[in-house]
Amino acid sequence: MNLNDKKTKKVVAGIVAGAMGMNIVPAMMPVVDSDLAGMFGVRAAEAAVPTELARNVAFTDTDTNGGQIAGNVTWEAAANESNITDYVVYYLNASDQKVGEAIGTVAKGGTYSVTINVDTAIPTGATQIGVFSKNTEGESATAAKVAIVDDKSGDANNAPTVTNPINDITGTAGGEAVTIDASGTFEDQDGDSLTLTAASSDESIATVTVNGTDIVVTPVAEGTATITVTADDGNGGKVNTTFDIVVSAAPAPANNAPTVANPINDITGTAGG
């Protein structure tokens, strides 16, 4: 520090005047000499919170119970760590907001990994894990993120159930198809997506197709056929429900009496001719 420097003298004069109660307002200027700042207890301009983020955040759930996770959250250093002292790991919701307290903190230059213990329940609302950069001024406004993919392979599968059986239907041979909405017919306790299939006991009487959750039955000929609808959860669980279609014969066409198309003209003749 050079006390003969003009800038130094100006700052010193202002500080001393203030200490003596003199009503002097020195011109505002930054303290550019770190020695001077330390001498008079003046805090140098603070660094901003980090903007550089960790890279390649990864997490694989090793806990096979649904609703619970375990494993290591790993990441790579930010491209520029000059303004970073630590990395802090949190759960995040779908809106990138922090859920609960930090999972862990790792100092810059350390092993970039945080362990989530077995049987850790996924916090309500958490859908992601985020790694924030940190320094003495605080944490970065955003995080490097990875989605939470819950491994449920160890859970016992519950087969779907029939909640609203389909009622029997009627149709007319050769008539219009009947469409049944089966979206509320089945339920799956595990929340699995269900795939529906259907079969007819006698396709000469009625055929059936499936379009999503719509069951489309087409009457063909007089008689009764049983339609079986199956819901499959994709994890080995299936359930069936059945209903009948009673097909009546097509009505006979209305009879039309014959008509005279060409009347016969009168004729003449001679007796004995």
Automatic annotation (TrEMBL):
Annotated InterPro entries: Big_2 (IPR003343), Cadherin-like_sf (IPR015919)
Transmembrane segments: 12-32
Domain BIG2: 160-241
GO-annotated molecular function: calcium ion binding
SUPFAM superfamilies: Cadherin-like
UniProt KW keywords: Membrane, Transmembrane, Transmembrane helix
Superkingdom, natural source: Bacteria
GO cellular component: membrane
Protein's UniProt name: Ig-like domain (Group 2)
